[in-house]
Amino acid sequence: MDASVGLGIFYHLLGALAAASFYIPVKLVKNWEWEASWLVNGIASWLIMPLLVSSLLLPNVLTFFLAIPPQVAAKTFVFGALWGLGGLTFGMTLRYLGLSVGYGVAIGITLVVGTLTPPLLNGTLMTLFTHASGLMALAGVAIAVVGIALTTLAGQKKERSKGVQNSELNVRKGVAIAIFCGITSAFMAFAIDAAGPIQAMALAAGVDPLYQVMPGYVIIMLGGFVTNAIYCLYQAKRHHTFAKIRRDPSHFWRNVMLSATGGVIWYMQFFFYGWGHVQMSAVNLAFVSWTFHMSMLVLCGGLWGLILKEWRNSGRAPLSYQLAGMLVIVLSTFIIGIGGS
């Protein structure tokens, strides 16, 4: 396998584009409570797709997963479940801080925690300060945070210019939830690190090195599915969601297909993340994979906002901050790329 920082950046960009796009078909779901579409989305993205991809990669899926050491499977599952909590609390962050501020705070915390904690726990963080590529990578992380801060400020200015009011605004509660969300969302990076022995098993089974992360996703995303499914079923019971669907099944199959399509697109986020992570690992920059994923997610989300004309009539200043933030994020990828090369 030929490895390069450029390929790693490109694959992370594809993954972030999928992450920024998955909700478009889900928004077209009609007459369903949120938890119904999210549950179908999760079944497709966290159960079906990881198993399907692993079935195509491995000669004997059942034998492979039964051979995984229990402690490795348990640790990977727990980290995946904690990552699932991050997804749930992300919505609460937006609820109490507003879309622009909540998004930026949560993503910023996730980026920093998910990037720096794995090398800290592995005892390799200080070695990053001893060579040029490590220093360049750390500088890129810092610049990415600045870019996210600029896009957050842009969103805040846009909301003010359009007179958007958040009746549930609660800064103290919102920041506390955002910190929890940012930390737990970063557990995807920890889960992939914990699944290292599973990746080694995949390579030993003849899986192409580019796909070595994929079997580990089965356990990681199972953990995420469990936490999300428990919450969705709890909400469904509160709202009598399934009874409502039975009373009005007119859009059932359409809604299932739209939600499942969103789930498949969402899975492609981590499919390409796996490719990018392998490329970065091959050039000793594995710890910046999460930086790329988070910063590219903000960048692609910003691009969709421009394409869908969300910034129309918001004024010159908000759009200027948004474009500046996106350019800074792009600059951060160049700096990390130069360091890795």
3D architecture notes:
By secondary structure, this protein is mainly α. The chain contains 15 helices and no strands. The protein has helices spanning 5-21, 23-26, 34-57, 61-66, 70-97, 99-121, 132-161, 171-185, 187-194, 196-204, 214-239, 241-247, 252-282, 289-307, 316-340. The longest helix is centred in the C-terminal third of the chain and has 31 residues, at 252-282. The protein is globular. The two termini are 17 Å apart.
Layout of strands and helices, then pairs:
Layout: H1 5-21, H2 23-26, H3 34-57, H4 61-66, H5 70-97, H6 99-121, H7 132-161, H8 171-185, H9 187-194, H10 196-204, H11 214-239, H12 241-247, H13 252-282, H14 289-307, H15 316-340
Helix pairs in contact: 1-13, 1-14, 3-11, 3-13, 5-6, 5-8, 5-9, 5-11, 6-7, 6-8, 6-9, 6-14, 7-14, 7-15, 14-15
| Structural class determined from secondary elements | mainly alpha
Main beta sheet, described?
Answer: none
Radius of gyration: 20 Å
Mean pLDDT: 82
Give the fraction of residues assigned to helices: over 70%
Taking the alpha carbons of the first and last residues, their distance comes to 17 Å
Uncertain runs are none
The number of E-state strands comes to 0
What's the SSE pattern?
A: HHHHHHHHHHHHHHH
Strand fraction equals under 5%
Q: What is the molecular shape?
A: globular
Total of helices: 15
In short:
The protein has 15 helices and no strands. With 341 residues, it is an all-alpha fold.
